[in-house]
Specification:
3 domains; rod-shaped; 5-stranded mixed β-sheet; Immunoglobulin-like; 28 strands
Length: about 450
């Protein structure tokens, strides 16, 4: 009796051993699977970095499906040993499947990229030509699907290879998921295989562009230009985009002066009124949250990047030309005033023509503002006039076409003891380039 038990136990142990050896090797598979009646399904998905430092990754997928044999493992092994023709059992099995009307296994392979990644344009064309369906979801993520069919015979596994890239405005980071949870193998909408998570270390990259501004003397550095913040313009016109997935690290933005002393935030930069041509450094500092040990590729470390903001400053000028009857006399004295400054200029003799003498006074280095010019010489009547330099009359907005202003005055000397009073008359007011001054 004991010998019978031993024989039965030995047969069961041998059956279990052969059954274990006949199963697919799980180390080559990736993801979680559901049983498919009558089929043995095996899937694998891998990602690889194109080249060191690149933000382009190559993805390969392989799906294999085989029909399960009707007979158990021991009887299949015995049949193979006893048969003089190894192909005979398989031919008989194939003929049997055809008689029973068994159908091939049709599946859909789906990949949905994380919205922080996109297909290369060339890859999209290649996939479409190979029969893949490509779409875009409301959150901007790219979906790819293939139809695959398996007859159950010995055949080459279904496979696909394509390349993806991190989006330009995504800074990068460690352990970033490449795909969404929807990726896997489906049959009639039912998931058969869910691919395992694929984490990438995406090199930090934010394309910075140098930027130039032209300001009128007295203007503050603007915080926005044409509807975009100055920092967005420095970021090649595109703000940082985390695509609703949260930040992958700490991103700090700060400004520095030409001598590298800190300025601070954009708000602090916007309080500066440059007095001449200068430049400021726009700097980014990134520190990742994750270590990168679980991700594919070299882990991202603390990184800095910078670019320059160049500021050109235009100065205003005002030229007063005054004519007096006679061959000359005491030069006129002009006072230029605004709420911010007061300047004096003595009219310089230029020439005498047909008994009339020309004087000229030049005021330069002026910020945009409204000015009053007053003739103060006691030999001529005291008269004041207002002029706008670098600004539009009425709304006080900067106008570069008014950077240089010229005015024409006619002076009549005072006649002492007669009580007769004359004044200074402005004959003309117009704009002119600096090189056209008298």
């Amino acid at each position: 009796m004991q010998r019978s038990y031993r024989r039965v136990f030995g047969a069961i142990s041998l059956f279990i051993l052969f059954w274990v050896l006949s199963q697919p090797v799980e180390a080559q598979e990736s993801g979680r699977r559901q049983e498919v009646k009558g089929w043995s399904l095996s899937c694998r998905r891998e990602a690889d970095l194109k080249e060191e430092g690149s933000r382009v990754f190559e993805v390969s997928i392989e799906v294999e499906a085989k029909r399960e044999k009707k007979e158990n493992t021991l009887s299949r092994i015995s049949a193979a040993e006893l048969s003089s023709n190894a192909e005979k059992p398989e031919k008989e099995e194939k003929d049997g499947r055809e008689k029973r009307g068994e159908q091939p296994l049709s599946v859909t392979v789906r990949e949905t990229l994380d919205p922080r990644f996109s297909l290369l344009p060339s890859e999209e064309r290649k996939l479409k030509s190979a029969g893949a369906q490509i779409g875009e979801k409301p959150d901007g993520s790219v979906s790819i699907s293939w139809e695959a069919a398996f007859s159950g015979e010995e055949e080459t596994p279904w496979s696909a290879v394509f390349s993806v890239q991190a989006r330009k405005d995504f800074p990068g980071g460690n352990e970033v998921p490449l795909f969404s949870e929807e990726s896997g193998v489906y049959q009639n909408g039912r998931p058969l295989w869910e691919f395992s998570e694929c984490l990438l270390n995406v090199p930090f990259s934010l394309p910075l562009s140098p930027c130039s501004l032209t300001l009128f003397l007295g203007e503050k550095i603007p915080k926005t230009v044409k509807g975009k913040t100055l920092e967005d313009l420095m970021l090649s016109g595109s703000p940082v985009n985390w695509y609703g997935k949260g930040e992958t690290g700490t991103l700090s933005v700060f400004w520095k002066k030409p001598d590298s002393t800190p300025v601070g935030t954009l708000s602090q930069l916007g309080e500066i009124r440059p007095v001449g041509d200068t430049q400021y450094a726009f700097s980014l500092s990134y520190t990742p949250y994750e270590t990168g040990k679980k991700g594919l590729g070299t882990p991202v470390k603390e990184t800095e990047a910078s670019s320059l903001l160049r500021v050109n400053v235009v100065e205003g000028s005002l030229t007063v030309q005054a004519v007096s009857e006679g061959k000359g006399g005491a030069p006129p004295l002009f006072l230029l005033e605004s709420d911010q400054l007061s300047l004096y200029r003595l009219g310089e003799y230029r020439k005498t023509t047909a008994g009339r003498t020309l004087y000229q006074a030049d005021f330069s280095g002026l910020p945009f503002d409204k000015y009053r010019v007053t003739q103060l010489s006691p030999d001529y009547e005291e008269v004041s006039e207002e002029y706008w330099v670098g600004a539009c009359p009425g709304n006080d907005t900067v106008d570069f076409q008014r950077a240089s202003v010229k005015t024409w005055m006619e002076l009549t000397p005072k006649k002492k003891g007669t009580g007769f009073e004359t004044g200074m008359k402005r004959e003309a007011f117009h704009l002119f380039p600096r090189d056209t001054l008298y």
